[in-house]
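Annex B. Sample input.
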Amino acid sequence: MTPPAGRPADDDPFAKAVKPLVDAIGGELIAPDHAQDDDVVLSWEGREVVAVRLPHLSDSLDHILAELRRRHGVPLADLDRRTKQSVVRLLEQRGAFSMRHGVETVATALGVSRFTVYNYLNRENAERGAADPRPDH
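Annex B, continued. Sample output.
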């Protein structure tokens, strides 16, 4: 069966292998012959198998938040304080707060104020600093 125009073959083992990773980053698998300049074409055993269309950075945070909501099974605003703190910790590790409006976006998703998100971040950084006995860290 021929895939729709622009879509990679569903039965290709390499495409199947990379699909979970592409899904996790919010990307899209496309046929290599439909790749654009900023797409990443993946080759295997000397042939172009699939291309990956990466998400826009602004979409990445929304994708991560949607995945966290699916993982927890409830809206993020319904999580308890401790779980919200762990979500903020994870998002900090993933670079969410280096994006413009990252704190505001996360605060809205968690149903808290920006001030609360900053408090969670400051608390985490203070605990990390207290756990590191080296004077320069």
